[in-house]
UniProtKB/TrEMBL annotation:
Name of protein: MarR family transcriptional regulator
Tree of life domain: Bacteria
InterPro entries listed in its UniProt record: WH-like_DNA-bd_sf, WH_DNA-bd_sf
Species of the source: Candidatus Coproplasma stercoripullorum
Lineage of the species this protein comes from: Bacteria, Bacillati, Bacillota, Clostridia, Eubacteriales
Amino acid sequence: MDDRFENFTVTVLKLGKLVQKIKLFEMESYGLKAIHVMCIYFAGLAPVTAVELCRLTSEDKAAISRALSLLKQKGYITYPAGAYNAEISLTEEGKKLCGFINVRATAAADFAGKDLTDADRAVLYKSLSSIAANLESYYKGLLKNGR
């Protein structure tokens, strides 16, 4: 019997849960959660809007809004009050936190892939990207064609 469905879904779910647990553990002393990691990470690459964060993180608008509100309250980000879809930038404290996140994320990724060669890693990421794109296409087809 082909166990692809079970192997794939269980492994992907386990990876997702472990990544969330690591993010939560690393952010605990900051009073932040996993969603804040990605907001800080993407804002650290370049100023970003809430709409862009929704797209980049696959989180809904309400979750991003709550996350940004807390990050602003804690002094990690800044954005103009009342401006619709304004660019979010990191404060100096936010830049320090982003540096910490980048160091810890690199450590986790390096440890996770310690048994992979560069060639293995390239194939893995290419395969995962292909699978994600194919599943997205499959899902869109389901939506288009109905049940």
